[in-house]
Amino acid sequence: MTLTKRSYFHGQSRWAWALIFSLFVIPFAYASGGSVTTIDFLWLAVFLLLAKMAGLIEKWGQPAVLGELVIGVVLGNLVLMGIGWFESVKHDQIILFLAELGVVILLFQIGLESKIDEMRKVGLRAFMVATVGVVTPFVLGYLVGMWLMPGLSNDAYLFLGATLTATSVGITGRVFRDLGKLQTSEAQIVLGAAVIDDVMGLIILAVVTAIVTTGAVSLFGISWITLKAILFLIGALFLGQWLTPYIGKFLSLIQTNIGMKFTLAISFCLIFAYLAHLAGLAPIIGAFAAGLMLEHVHFNEFDQPAINQEIKAAVKNADSETKQKVSKVLEHHDEEHLDRLVAPLGHFLVPIFFIMTGMQVNLETLFDLKVLGIALVITAVAFVSKLVAGIVAGPVNKYIVGWGMAPRGEVGLIFAMIGKQLGVISEELFSVVIIMVILTTLLTPPILNYLLRQQSSSANKTTEI
C-alpha cells in the first residue's frame, strides 16, 4: 500500500469515527437532562463535527458552505421522519447567539481580506449593481405577486417585493473566500454592491413596515433612515481609519503581545457591529466596515509572530539573495497575520451560523403543489432580477456578479419573518418566500462555484497561449 493510499484510508477512517461519535452523542444529548448550557456543549461539538464532514463536498468541487447548509436542512427536517432530536436546538438562544456572532465574524474576515482601494475602484459600478439589484426585484416581486396571488392586501405585495431585494452577503462572500477569489473585480463589486444592497433593502423594509403599521410614511422619515445609513458607513470608514492607529499605539503601551492584537481586532469588529445596529442597520454591515478599516500597518507597534522572528534568526548568516527571498515571504505572512489570528474563531463560529440557517428551512412547504408552483415562478423572478443587475457591472464577468447577488439566505428569512409577525404575510405567501429562500440559497453556491472555476480555467488557457 502506498503512502497516498494510507493517507486516503486514514482520512476516511477519521470521518467514520467522527460520524460514529456524532451518532452516539446526538441521542445522548437529546435524552439527557441537565442545564441548557451543558447540553449546548454537546450540540456544538456535534455541529462542528458534522460541518467538517460536510466539507467532503469539496471533493466534488463544491464550496464547503453548501455542505454546511445541506447538513442544516437535513438536521432541521429529521422531524418529518419522526426524529425530533434537533427541534429544541432551533430555538436555543445560546446557539442562536453564537450563530449570529458567527456571521458577524465572517463579515469581519471578509472585510479584512478586502481592500478599500480596490473597492473604491469599483465603487460606482457596485452602486449601480446594487441599485438595479434592489429596484428590479422589488418592482417585479410586487407585480408578479399581484398576478399569481390575486386578492391579497397591497401591503402583502409590498412585503414580497421587499423580501426579494435582499442579498445574503455572507453566503456569497464565503464562496468567494473558499475559492480564493476575494481579490477579483467581480468579488469586490459583489461585496460592495451587497453592502449597499443591504442598506437599501433595510431602508425599503423600514418604509414598508411604517406603511403597514401607521398607514403612511413621511418624507422626513425616509430621509432620516437614509441619512443614518450613509453617515454610519462614511463615519465608520473615514473616522475609523483615522482613529485606529492612535488606539493601537495606546494599547501597545500596555502590552504588545498577540493577545492584545487579537483583542483590538475583535473589539473593533463587535463595537462597529453594535454601532451599525444603533444606526438601524444590520450588525454584519458594521463588522464588514471594521474589517475594511483595519490594516496590518495599524499593528506595527505590536510584536511580530514568533515564527517570523525565529526564521529571521535562522537566515541571519545566509547570503543576501536568500535573505531577500525570505524577507519577502515573511512580509507577505506579516500582512496576513491579522487574518490568520482571527481565523480560528471563524472556524469555530461560522459553520454554526450556516448549519443554523439551513435548520430554519422547512421542507414541508414543498408538499403543497400549488404553493410549490407559485414559489418556482417567484424563484425564477428572484434569480432573473439579480442577474439583470450584473448587466451594469461594466467590463467584468456579468454572470458572476449577477449570480453573486442572488442568494437571499438569512436576510430573506428575516424580512419574511417580520412580515409574518406584522400579520401581513399569510401562511401561503410565507411558504412561497421560504421556498424561494431555500432555492436561491442552495443553488447559488454550486452555480457560482462553476462560473468561477470556468473563469480560472479560461484565464489559465490564455496565459499558456
Give the topology:
Elements: H1 3-31, H2 36-54, H3 64-76, H4 93-113, H5 116-121, H6 123-148, H7 154-164, H8 169-178, H9 185-214, H10 219-254, H11 258-278, H12 283-293, H13 306-314, H14 320-335, H15 337-359, H16 369-389, H17 398-404, H18 409-421, H19 427-464
Helix pairs in contact: 1-2, 2-3, 2-15, 3-15, 3-19, 4-8, 4-12, 4-15, 6-7, 6-9, 6-16, 7-9, 7-18, 8-9, 8-19, 9-10, 9-17, 10-11, 10-12, 11-12, 16-17, 16-19, 17-19, 18-19
Describe, in plain words, how this protein is organized in 3D:
The protein is an all-alpha fold and 465 residues long. It has a single domain, classed as Na+/H+ antiporter like fold, CATH 1.20.1530.20. It contains 19 helices and no strands. α4 (93-113) crosses α8 (169-178), α11 packs across α12 (283-293) and α17 runs antiparallel to α19 (427-464). The longest helix has 38 residues, at 427-464. It is globular, with a radius of gyration of 24 Å. The protein starts with a helix and ends with a helix.
- State the shape: globular
Helicity, as a percent range = over 70%
Helical element count?
19
User: In total, how many domains does the architecture comprise?
Assistant: 1
Largest sheet: none
CATH class: Mainly Alpha
Q: Give, in order, the helices and strands.
A: HHHHHHHHHHHHHHHHHHH
**Mean model confidence by pLDDT:** 77
| Class derived from helix and strand content | mainly alpha
For the record, the CATH architecture stands as Up-down Bundle
Low-confidence stretches: 1-15
